[in-house]
Design a protein that fits this description.
alpha/beta; Rossmann fold; six-stranded mixed beta sheet; four-stranded antiparallel beta sheet; 6 helices
Length: 240
């Protein structure tokens, strides 16, 4: 694997918070029942941290990540990411936020099956209005770094699970987001490919200072984390 240009690793103490949540809650109505996904969470994450969100299934990890990604809206409380107030944002503002501020990596890859590797990576930048020539150049560079240069014209169905997740990482990076959010990024991978994905995310954090939040129930990323937050019943049970 090629290396990113190295810089001094940012530390939590040397950067202001890039993520701030105050009394953040998300509840859902299902028939006559109310289900709590996130319950009065207070949270600050500094720029340059690599944070693990842990907890059993249903603990609130994916709900919190969806709120941070602007894919869902809080029921109550405040949420600011990179200076953007997500609790009061319009639909258009959230679209712009997702295109320019955050990059998402999903367990199920979420690649477009009819687009090849290069087209999948280019798509978010083209939707953001960037010039085609610049986008293709940057996408090719990212895919080269991820050792996917020979796979540019392949469809997702022609890739291994590890290759699909590396393509998804390149797609998440194409707009140079300040924050990378990864929801169980190794969940559909074997241990070897899972370790490769964690190494990639760690290198992004260490070399380029990207703030990375990973929701996981496994232990592959434990050594890479600058901080671990355990959730239970939508609340923070432990943070350290």
């Amino acid at each position: 694997m090629q290396s990113l240009q190295k810089n001094d690793k940012p530390t939590a103490s040397s950067h202001a918070a890039i993520i701030r949540a105050r009394n953040l809650s998300r509840t859902y109505t299902l028939g006559e029942s109310r289900i709590t996904g996130v319950d009065a969470v207070d949270l600050e994450i500094a720029a340059g941290e690599l944070v693990l969100l842990t907890g059993v299934s249903g603990s609130g990890k994916s709900t919190l990540l969806s709120l941070l990604a602007g894919l869902d809206r809080p029921t109550a409380g405040e949420l600011t990411v990179a200076g953007r107030d997500l609790s009061q944002a319009s639909g258009a503002s959230l679209d712009d936020y997702r295109r320019h501020v955050v990059g998402m990596v999903f367990q199920s890859f979420n690649l477009m099956p009819t687009l090849d590797v290069l087209e999948n990576v280019c798509l978010p930048a083209l939707l953001a209005g960037r010039p085609m020539a610049d986008v293709r150049k940057r996408a090719t560079e990212l895919l080269g770094w991820l050792n996917l240069g020979p796979r540019l014209a392949h469809l997702p169905a022609q890739l291994s699970g590890g290759e699909m997740q590396r393509t998804a990482i390149a797609r998440a990076l194409i707009n140079d987001p300040a924050v990378i959010l990864a929801d169980e990024p190794t969940g559909n991978l074997d241990s070897r490919n899972g370790a490769v994905v964690i190494d990639l995310l760690t290198e992004l954090n260490r070399a380029s200072g990207k703030t990375i939040v990973i929701a996981t129930h496994g232990g592959l990323a434990d050594k890479a984390a600058t901080r671990r937050i355990r959730l239970g019943d939508g609340r923070i049970q432990w943070d350290g």
